[in-house]
Amino acid sequence: MTTRRPSKLALAAACTLGAGLAVTALLFSAVGRLEHSAARLAFEQRADQRTAALQSGLDDAVEVLAVTSQLFQTVAPVTRGQFHDFTRPLLARHPFIQAFNYHRMLAHAERGPYEARMRREFPGFQIMGIEDGRLAPAPDKPWYNVVDYLEPLAGNERAFGLDASYHPQIRQAIESMLADGRPAATGLIKLAQSIGNESGMVMLMPVYRPGMPTATSAQRHAAWLGDVATVIRATTLVRKILEGDGLLRDPQLALQVSVGAPGAASSVVFSQGDMAQGTASASATAFARLPGWLEWMDWTHRGEYRRGFTVLGKNWEVRLAALPRPFVEQHLGSLSTLVGGILFSVLMAAFVHTLVLRSRRVQMLVDARTADLQRSNERLNADVASRKRTERALQESEQRFRRLLALSSDWYWEQDVHYCFTSITGGFFDKGHISPERFIGKTRWDNAPEMLTTRWGREHIAKLEARLPFSHLEYAITGDDGVLRWFSTSGEPVYDATGDFRGYRGTGNEITERKLSEQRIQHIAHHDVLTGLPNRVLLQDRLAQAIAYANRSGHPMWVLLIDLDRFKFVNDSLGHKAGDILLKAVAARLQSSVRESDTVARLSGDEFVAILSEYPDAQLSPDIVQRVMNAVAQPVILEGKEFFVTCSIGVAAYDGTVGNQAHHLIEHADIAMYAAKKQGRNGFRFYQPVMNEEALERLRIEGALRKALERGEFVLHYQPQVDLGDGAITGAEALLRWQHPELGVVAPARFIGLAEETGLIVPIGVWALRTACAQARVWHDARVADGQAPLRMAVNLSARQFSQPDLAQCIADVLEETGLPPACLELELTESVFMDDVTQAVGLLHELKALGVTLAIDDFGTGYSSLSYLRSFPIDVLKIDRSFVNDLATDTDDEAIVVSIIALAHNLKLRVVAEGVESREQLEYLRRHDCDQIQGYYFSRPVGPLQFEQMLRDNKHLGRADIAAPARVEAETGT
Ligand SMILES: Nc1nc2c(ncn2[C@@H]2O[C@H](COP(=O)(O)O[C@H]3[C@@H](O)[C@H](n4cnc5c(=O)[nH]c(N)nc54)O[C@@H]3COP(=O)(O)O)[C@@H](O)[C@H]2O)c(=O)[nH]1
Hints:
Blueprint: H1 11-74, H2 80-93, E1 97-107, H3 108-121, E2 128-131, E3 134-137, E4 143-151, H4 168-180, E5 184-185, E6 189-190, E7 199-208, H5 217-223, E8 224-233, H6 234-244, E9 253-259, E10 268-272, H7 275-284, E11 304-311, E12 314-322, H8 327-330, H9 332-407, E13 410-415, E14 421-425, H10 428-432, H11 436-439, H12 444-447, H13 455-465, E15 470-478, E16 484-495, E17 501-510, H14 512-526, H15 536-553, E18 557-564, H16 567-574, H17 576-593, E19 599-604, E20 607-613, H18 622-633, E21 636-638, E22 641-643, E23 647-654, H19 665-678, E24 684-686, H20 689-711, E25 714-723, E26 729-740, E27 744-746, H21 748-758, H22 761-785, E28 792-797, H23 799-802, H24 807-818, E29 825-830, H25 832-835, H26 838-851, E30 854-860, H27 867-870, E31 877-880, H28 882-886, H29 892-907, E32 911-915, H30 920-928, E33 933-935, H31 945-953, H32 960-963, H33 966-974
Parallel strand pairs: 23-24, 26-28, 28-29, 29-30, 30-31, 31-32, 32-33
Antiparallel strand pairs: 1-4, 1-8, 2-3, 5-7, 6-7, 7-8, 9-10, 9-12, 11-12, 13-14, 13-17, 15-16, 16-17, 18-20, 18-23, 19-20, 21-22, 25-26, 25-33, 26-27
The protein binds ligand LFPHGCPZ.
């Protein structure tokens, strides 16, 4: 905090003021002295000027007199006219000359003649004299000095004919003139021609008789004829002289010119100004008595001047007195110096004072700043100490960081503004097997050029350009040892103190192990474990890519859905291992049958999908599909035996029209594949929209199927099973019928498969089981009451039902619910239900068997029949598939199969039921080969419960011919 000090006049300012005033005083004194000297000098100059002018003017007058005298010396006698002509220009040139005279010296004796002579020219002329101031005829005298020639006459008339010697001073001048031979003059005298008070003086020069000696006074007296006189008006003379030289008007001067006795009033010729004022005030000033060196202090600068000179023996005196002048005007310089000096001194003092104050303020500021600086310095020292501590901590931290870096798998890197590496520490080069020259001074993409072309690479570079931090950027580089390694790096932009971008820095580590694991996981996630083909997930991705390519290129693209025919048979009969070998072999063949750029994926089980794209150099054609089929159809060695497998292929073609059914391609291929299967397997079909109609119909059926149960649209028909021993009905197979309100009666073949796929078969199957058991209980009770043998009710169990965990419990519940003796229930299972997990299947079969029911293998021989497991299954019945029965008597193979199955069953103590018996021949063949029972249209189609009841009531039997020996049969037939 600064304190204000009272503002006193600073010592320096006081000194400045004092010095300034002192200098001012000196200057003032000097200038005053100069002024004084200048004034005195000017005054003296002016006095000298005037004196010189007067003296010169008087000398001129004398000179004129001399010139006039010279006329008389050279022209003798001079006539009046000559005199007139000679003096006229002189008068004009010297206006102070009152008159030029020629005084003729006359002896008294000559008076008379002279006057007479003159009267002839000037009537009444007589020599005049002045008596008591008046003109009067001159009294008689020994001689006369008569004014004979007078120029100009006008104004001087009174002097014409005057005896000039009447005036004592003129007489004295004549005497002097003749005495010493030089011109002479009078003092101031009253001139005869003067009208006022103006005095004049007369200058005289003698005129001698030519040829006479004039060396001595006597000689001059003897030769004297007269004299030339110049009558001068003294006052006019002085005024004209001064006027002519411009010296007359000077208000600062008082002037007095006198001739003769100095100081006498009568001798004053000219006076101007108040002479007394000048001299009186000079003696009245305070400085009047000052010593010479202090005269300058006489501010009035008044002075008096006297000069004297002599003309024609007469003493002239010029007196001048300086009149008082305005003080300021007289002392302008010194006063200016004084005022200026004082002002300057004051200003300088003020300036110095200001400087001193400013300097004090500056000093105070400097003090304050110094104090601030000291405080800042202390803080700075504290900061420096703190910073040193921080630096030490930083160094320790960095050392720890470096030790950690050395210990850890990470490294630290820095890049310049061009993203070129400037340093990489922490073992990157060792771990990556990369020489420093490859990285230092290079960008990351110099070593991983794919960054410039890939999306992730370009995005990373864009991030750098935007000065954004990045994390976990993963890229691969092949080391100097040829091994590809993966690295992960994170970084952030670096800025300097001014905020300028300086580059990037960050850390990195090697992630090859993790990356390989990820790749393995990724591969597993996207590939089928068994075949190594892309799985359903990757298939979707590849399909999207292929569609995008087709959209871009406009080229068509095909999706093939490949389903192996009878694969389940292989799997079931030869086991999973063989099935796996087959699937792997098929996968390899499929892959080798298409181009490398095409995709082959495993969709599920025995279903594969191939995506074939068309390229400009390779068009798609059905030959490719055939090639795929041929590849699959090649024999496979399974358990040492050649095995042939075929496939059915559905093809969905995409024409490259954007969005055109692209997302339905697999669906369409599936539909087409179904169509191919339907056509009889081992073939391919291209998807047609009409197939879609069929599929739609399936969808419609599915929808209706879901509601059929609750709407009570299902009914059961019953087909009798007849014993070939006695021809009696021993059982019935419950067969489901769907009475659709619009579609009419829908056969199971149209909806059982769909119900299986949708899972609806489970509730439907339970309903069928319960209904069949309830019906069987009714018939059972009636037959028991009638003393007849109990009737077996065969009910179909689908694979889906068989996989229900509560199947046994469900059946037990139904039996309990309906009250049907378990022995009256026969469950028909197809071989396929055992195939997925035989062990589990065996367990479940035992569970079911434990309920007391009988178990039958339906459709035996159609597919996966494996005789090996029959022994372990707790089954009771084998049902020969009707496809074998159908060709009996025409197909020796089927005959052999049927015989084998009957033999096998009997061998295993199993009952054999042949289904689909439509003819007597078939029946005969079966009976002949000891088939136990038959089921088929030959005896009865599946019928409603009422019709079946009627058959029971009618005790319908096979004819005796059907059960008797052929001979007997023929005989019976004939009856
Ligand atoms: N899980 C269930 N499956 C059932 C149920 N009801 C029937 N089905 C299965 O549906 C398939 C077709 O049955 P369906 O159309 O009823 O055909 C049966 C008979 O009508 C037919 N048959 C019988 N005798 C002959 C004959 O002489 N000629 C001939 N062309 N067909 C004949 O055979 C079918 C019975 O076969 P099977 O079951 O193998 O004994 C069929 O597979 C049924 O299993 C049900 O409720 N649940």
